[in-house]
Amino acid sequence: MNDKTLARDELIGLNVKIKDCKDPSWNGKSGIIIDETKNTFLLEIENKRKKIAKNIASFEFKYKGKNITINGSKIGFRPEDRIKKVR
Predict the structure, then answer these.
(1) What secondary structure, in 3-state letters, does 4-73 show?
(2) Is 76 helix (H, G, I), strand (E, B) or coil?
(3) How far apart are CA 5 and CA 8, in angstroms?
(4) pLDDT tens, position by position, for the chain (87 residues)?
(5) HSE of 61, CA atoms in CB hemisphere, 13 A
(6) Does domain 3-85 have CATH number 2.30.30.210?
(7) Burial of 6 from C-beta contacts in 10 A (0-12 / 13-18 / 19+)
(8) 3-class SS at 1?
(9) H helix or E strand, kind and range, residue 3
(10) Which residues contact 10 (CB under 8 A, 6 or more apart)?
């Protein structure tokens, strides 16, 4: 299980934690991905919806019992294209 396997899978519904972000107010926040676009994730954090740009942060996902960290710039594709384009 590696970051490429995760990046090719469905991310909506996964728990995610922001590990490192250019905006320090996001660091350490965690929630559930409820929607995804090419450039953003829509997260539910403490019963509030927050949108974060993918390219400004690294994300730690809980995926099949493991914690996997991915730089957001590596998954900056439309969800339906990510399967083909992640290398």
Answers:
(1) HHHHCCCCCCCEEEEEEECCHHHCCCEEEEEEECCCEEEEEECCEEEEEEHHHEEEEEEECCEEEEEEHH
(2) coil
(3) 5
(4) 578 888 888 999 999 999 999 999 999 999 999 999 999 999 999 999 999 999 999 999 988 889 999 999 999 988 888 877 776
(5) 23
(6) yes
(7) buried
(8) coil
(9) helix 3-7
(10) 79
